[in-house]
Protein: Niban-like protein 2
Organism: Heterocephalus glaber
Amino acid sequence: MGAQASSPLDRRQREELQGRVSTLLGSFLPGYRAQLAVAVLRQIALELRPQEPSGPQLSRSKKLPRVREHRGPLAQLRGRPPRGQPVFCVLRGDGRLEWFGRQEDFEAGRPPLGAVALTGYALLTSQREYLHLLRGLGPGPEALGPPPPAGSEPLLEAPVRAPLLLQHPFRRHLCFSAPSAEAQHAWSLALQGGIRLRGTVLQRSRDPAARAFLDAVRLYRQQRGHFGEDDAMLGSDAEVLSAVLLRELLPEWTRTEGAAAGRGGAWALTELLDAVYGVVLAAASAGLRAFQPEKDELLAGLELALRPDLEHTLRLRTRAAGRLQAEVQARLEACLQRSVDLQLPQLVRTLLSTVERVLGTVQTLLARGVDRVCSRLRESQLGARLRGAVHSLGELPWDPELMHLCYGEAERGRGRLGQLAASFGFLGTQSLVFGAQDLAQQLMADAVATFLQLADQGLSASLDRDQAAQQLEKVWGRVLKKLSSDSAAARSEFVRGWLLRILLPFVLHCLEPSSQAELPELHGGDLGTGSQALSTAGILEDVVRGVLLQRIDRELQEALGASHTSCGLVGHSQPPCEQGTAVLFLFLVPGPLECQASALTWDQFRSSGRSPGHLSLSLGASGHNLSSCFRSDFPACVRPKTTRCTLPTCL
């Protein structure tokens, strides 16, 4: 069913879709520009942050995330009516699936019959489940009339052996069958890895512009009344915008343009949706490419404009935050007590237990791998095989069969997490599961990289078999300590980050229309260049995020049974600062889900050799409640030298 066909869309329909994309970009890009300004401000502060005394213990893997290339013969349902036809399929390391008429065509370098990026697809290996899904497709009984009679879908007429059924909400379905159950299992693991790799490309990125883009999409949707997160944020920037538009467009489109196609059966409807998606994706890609030169120029200009005014911008942001917090405090507390506090403990514990199982499996798998290497060394000759045996561990993070044990632990928590989070309007459980799986793979890759680095330092040709194995066991002991430390930090960061993604949109929705409040600090001639990086909606998020994090940290500490949360935020759960004279130093650490900050006294800051003019902000005894920093993902630490306090927010 993956063969390319002539487009079912006429010229009028294509032009209408292109116009809708242009309208979306016209509404989206102003918010994107504003979030880029926030990202630049965050980056400037990051540059002036002193080195953290305790950071990650494991060495960062230099290997890019990928999937192991997988090849083999399959049968594909294509044609009219669909019939199983032999193809040779290749899953590339970047998560693209290609299929050829014969293996010889692939080996000769001929172009494939078809190719698709696996972004947004879901894999089904049950024909019954897939047929149930097909029956649920369509614009609805009112638009389609009576459903087609049983047997009218060709797929119903013949059982499919070992099916591999790739379903997408907006694209043509891809239906394959494997020659055996073993081949089906291997392909299933490979395809699931490709789907995840393509889906989390923005979430994994450390580029500040990627986070700016995701924040801009989220705010764009909130402005249109969509506060709960879902899986529309998976994929590249153009794919995310296409999914956002199609979620707005699809109900209207299927009531009108899709009605005739729907009467032709579910497959005909998916072909129409595939054509719609192709037009929308092409237009979104072209629009973002056209914006790229402006984006590059904007980022360079923001750097020059915001750096000199950083101190002034942060001062205004702090005053505005204090004013806004006083305005929303009563309604915020009422919302939290009514809707959040009762469910938060169970949500924390369920999410925590899921990620603990995932990370525990990482440690178990790596220990087994090291044990196998040590046993192999004791049983074989050394020489050239020594380093080869050790470096065989290097492929462990990319082995789908072994890593599936970790990934399965994340999948097992999907149902319960989905039920608990749905009450807050959160429908992004697939993104959450992918996030846990990405975390497992990254920790495994870092641990393996650290093990190989330390092993290379300790092994030599002069060691006999038992000595080499003993040396590796010592290395494993060191790596285990580092892995345990990083796992504890990653566990808390993951839980805190995802709880914010679940709860923050819900609480912001409860506080509407506070994001439209007029704040004098954000208007008038005093603001200067900081106007590009400050907004009422952004400051409100800071305030709410800070209050939420206090509650989350309290529950997390109780769930962990520890005196403090190992999350990289020193003293984050302490009470808000008392009013008084202080000097504010922000040191921001970006990350996909979490961030950190450090506090220095004036003497410590001055001795660090950094220029205080860039980052210091003197605050007199103004009486402001400094309860958040310029974005609440980063905590701000404010206190005279004799005492210490961490503000209850982070960016």
In short: The CA atoms of residues 47 and 587 lie 8 Å apart. Confidence is low (pLDDT under 50) at residues 139-153, 524-528, 562-651. The longest strand covers residues 70-78. DSSP finds 20 helices and ten strands in the chain.
